[in-house]
From TrEMBL, chains A, B:
Residues involved in Mg(2+) 3 binding: D26, D70, D196
Binding site for Mg(2+) 5: D199
Protein name, entry field: Thiamine-monophosphate kinase
Similarity remark: Belongs to the thiamine-monophosphate kinase family.
Residues engaged in binding Mg(2+) 1: D42, D113
Binding site for substrate: H49, D240, Y287
UniProt pathway: Cofactor biosynthesis; thiamine diphosphate biosynthesis; thiamine diphosphate from thiamine phosphate: step 1/1
């Protein structure tokens, strides 16, 4: 086990409170005074999650959007966010982007911290939401016989990044992901399992299968992609799309537009079967968590 | 106004929700389901908040302790924390220190994120607490005629850092600050204003006076210090002590050990009077916020 994997394991060993579902992979879900709080924290680091010189307004949008997407996958309604921000070049743009995304989703900034530092900038966001349906959906609930569904198209962020790299301007699915809050709330009462596709459809499906102790079979051709057909596999392994991946009992139609891309089977030889081929480990199915 | 000050102002302009008391300077206080939540987020950056090569177990302790201290100043009981952590050298020690401090204060790790990055490491922590008394104390409530009190001694962190710099080992007030959770909860029903002394007694008193729109008069000789007498002024302007600074109506005795170091006066010529001398601006009274 790498030292990073060992470290994350040690954090998971610490995170044993019932509210701590699965450190890093899942939101915390906390019962409090008759409400159910959903809490998530994601960081973005210059050079890792965005290139040096990126438009900091886009970084602010994405920082908020990816955290709200975690709430969306829980069917939660955002209450507010706390920001941790390293000061630096582009702060004016960052403030503008932050105001834009918080205004767009009507989410208040509740507090936070600004710090000075040398070297690459880092930014953290804690999003706090209120569950609109209990039990709160998780990635662990997929049942044998369920159908696997995904909202929207995969690969949009990949195409968006390439457009940015070609020097095209404007908002793309890469720079301006859209957290599916309304869809998540509509789905929450119906799904047996749900998560957002942050690291690639195949990797996230693999994780859902592992968490639910089932196998998931995906028909790659059925997945809608926002990329040329010859890049289908890339689209299914690229991350950052923030679509919702969920399971429903067979025969049930989702209350929001989505595509049936596979089904849940008894745990077999591998967690994931792609067009009938077993995928035994998650290597190469998406991009690394950090 | 510097670009950093402008940025922080723009965040404050965004943080207008009633729960967002004063961005960065104060915890968020959120009514939810009959409970009152207190939320805070502080970051620590290598090279800014701790020297490269520091014992990462100490960094983990301090990261948690300074956030719990924010909860202490609200009389809040911790519910849990979310961690944002940049992976790197010393992660084993960090995990050990984190387990130690969370175990010591019986606070669960609820979730978070780990990230890779090049350059100085940064770490963020969000602490979530439940108010034990409402209204939740704030720095804005000091009333003319109140007495000003502080728990413990000032300057301990300064002496602790110097001990570390001399190569002495072991826990110091600098490396292992103690959040005064029990004291904060005992004080909350009695105080008119309360905050923790994170950036220096004089600077934080100045801020309390500004927030409460009063003047505060401090008798420097009356403040207990954990340093040689000739370093009294340094002890009163050094940060990181995490004592509780609070005001009580005149004649009232605090329920925990503390020292009366001054009083609250009508807003006069300056926010702060030190031994009768007006201190008009906060320059030099403590250390900078970031």
């Amino acid at each position: 086990m790498s030292s990073e994997a060992a470290f994350i394991s040690s954090l998971r060993a610490l995170a044993t409170h019932p509210a701590a579902r699965n450190f890093e992979d899942d939101c915390a879900v906390l019962e409090l005074g008759g409400e159910t709080l959903v809490l998530t924290h994601d960081m973005m680091v210059e050079g890792t999650h965005y290139p040096p010189g990126a438009d900091m307004a886009d970084v602010a949008w994405k920082l908020v959007a990816v955290n709200l997407s975690d709430l969306a996958a829980k069917g939660a309604e955002p209450i507010g966010v706390l920001l941790g921000h390293m000061l630096g070049n582009g702060d004016d743009a960052f403030a503008k982007g932050l105001a834009e995304v918080l205004g767009h989703y009507n989410v208040p900034l509740l507090g936070g911290d600004t710090v000075s530092g040398k070297g690459p900038k880092s930014h953290g966001l804690t999003a706090i939401g209120r569950a609109t349906h209990v039990p709160v959906p998780s990635r662990t609930g997929a049942q044998v016989g369920d159908a696997l569904w995904v909202t929207g198209e995969l690969g949009g962020a990949m195409m968006g990044l390439e457009a940015l790299q070609r020097g095209e301007s404007g908002h793309t699915a890469y720079s301006h992901p859209v957290p599916l809050l309304t869809e998540g709330q509509a789905l929450a009462p119906h799904v047996t399992a749900m998560m957002d596709v942050s690291d690639g459809l195949l990797l996230d499906s693999f994780r859902m299968a592992e968490a639910s102790r089932v196998s998931i079979a995906i028909d790659s051709k059925s997945a809608p992609i926002a990329a040329p057909e010859e890049r289908r596999m890339e689209a299914l392994t690229w991350g950052d799309d923030y679509q919702l991946l969920f399971t429903l009992p067979a025969g049930e139609e989702p209350p929001v537009p989505a595509t049936n891309i596979g089904q849940v089977e008894p745990r077999g030889f591998a967690p994931l079967f792609l067009d009938g081929e077993p995928l035994l480990n998650s290597e190469g199915l998406g991009y690394s968590h950090n």
